[in-house]
Amino acid sequence: MTNYIIVACSECEGYLLAKSCQKSRTCPYCGSRVLLEKAKKVASSEKADEASMILRKLKERTAAKSGKAKLQKLI
Ligand SMILES: [Zn+2]
Question: What pLDDT digit, counting tens, does each position of 30-53 carry?
């Protein structure tokens, strides 16, 4: 069974989704290689849709914290 994990990039702290069978992922935000066993695991799920939902919520929270959400609405 495949587990989906959400890890935080060690370089930019951005959240990314990966499968537990993978060893590394390239961060979609800063392009650095993230080693999954060394990265900070934020959440995990057995279902892909559930994992992506968690990821979306994490991103929303991060955006709200940094004020980017407000800025995007203004533009
Ligand atoms: Zn990154």
Answer: 999 999 999 999 999 999 999 999
CA distance 53 to 31: 23
Half-sphere exposure of 65 (CA within 13 A, CB side): 6
Ligand 1 centroid–CA 65 distance in Å is 18
CA 43 / ligand 1 centre spacing (Å):
17
Structure tokens at 6: 């959400």
For residue 54, what pLDDT is reported? Answer: 96
Q: Is pTM beyond 0.85 here?
A: no
What CATH number does the domain located at 4-74 have? 3.90.820
